[in-house]
């Protein structure tokens, strides 16, 4: 299965590894021998390139969560009338200007890049021991021996989800708890370089979401007044 997906995303994998090598040439010339720095730079580049898609995805998720109370009322009122339930739900989406698929499409576009990055780093051949070490991590191709990155992967995943959550149903609350724990758990056995990518991606995502919603925080007191 791994070989199948690796061959499927081969062009993207080669492109990402080529960019990773170019960043390593630059950071190496600056005296930074570790591949950890190119991984961080490449992750930031990917998040900047896909930022317009991130904006659409996050805004759609936020809008869907904001209409959840109205959705619950409609579901309760028309729970025995599927036809009216579908009609009223569609009307609510149109009135709120929400497209349920809008949050999925940007993610589908980004998936080839995310999968390509996964396979680009999973079995990456580092040129030397110095290139494979990063801060407290002796080998980026092996799991983090101190478990710092797995903990950060769980924490940053939770924070990233928390920033887009408003009204949540019980299932969403459970998912918000389970998903970060699952990410942290699988990160225990993943190569540290791959987990470093995930943590960096989450941190940049958190920064981007803060930037997107900074205006909401400023206008909230005025609206309350």
TrEMBL record:
Main location per the UniProt record: membrane
InterPro entries, per the entry: YidC/ALB3/OXA1/COX18, YidC/Oxa/ALB_C, YidC_ALB_C
GO BP terms, alphabetized: protein insertion into membrane; protein transport
GO cellular component: plasma membrane
Protein's membrane topology: Multi-pass membrane protein
Keyword Membrane: yes
Keywords: Cell membrane, Chaperone, Membrane, Protein transport, Transmembrane, Transmembrane helix, Transport
Organism domain of life: Bacteria
Presence of the UniProt keyword Chaperone in the record: yes
Cell compartments where the protein resides: Cell membrane; Membrane
Record domain Membrane insertase YidC/Oxa/ALB C-terminal: where: 35-214
Membrane-crossing segments per the record: 7-29, 35-55, 101-121, 133-158, 178-199
Recorded GO MF terms: membrane insertase activity
Family, as annotated: Belongs to the OXA1/ALB3/YidC family.
Protein name: Membrane protein insertase, YidC/Oxa1 family
Species of provenance: Selenomonas artemidis F0399
């Amino acid at each position: 299965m791994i070989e199948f997906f690796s061959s499927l995303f081969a062009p993207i994998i080669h492109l990402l590894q080529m960019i990773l090598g170019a960043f390593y040439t630059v950071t190496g010339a600056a005296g930074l021998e570790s591949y950890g720095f190119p991984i961080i730079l490449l992750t930031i580049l990917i998040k900047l390139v896909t930022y317009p898609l991130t904006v659409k995805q996050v805004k759609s998720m936020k809008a869907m969560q904001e209409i959840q109370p109205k959705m619950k009322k409609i579901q309760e009122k028309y729970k025995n009338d599927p036809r009216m339930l579908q009609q009223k739900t569609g009307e609510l989406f149109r009135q709120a200007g929400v497209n349920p698929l809008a949050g999925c499409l940007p993610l589908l576009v980004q998936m080839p890049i995310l999968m390509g990055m996964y396979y680009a780093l999973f079995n990456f051949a580092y040129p030397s021991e110095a290139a494979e070490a990063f801060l407290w991590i002796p080998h980026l191709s092996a799991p983090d021996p101190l478990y710092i990155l797995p903990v950060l992967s769980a924490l940053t995943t939770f924070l990233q989800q928390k920033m887009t959550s408003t009204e949540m149903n019980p299932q969403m609350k459970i998912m918000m708890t389970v998903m970060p724990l699952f990410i942290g758990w699988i990160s225990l056995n993943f190569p540290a370089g791959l987990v470093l990518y995930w943590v960096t991606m989450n941190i940049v995502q958190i920064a981007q979401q803060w930037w997107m919603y900074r205006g909401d925080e400023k206008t909230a007191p005025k609206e309350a007044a």
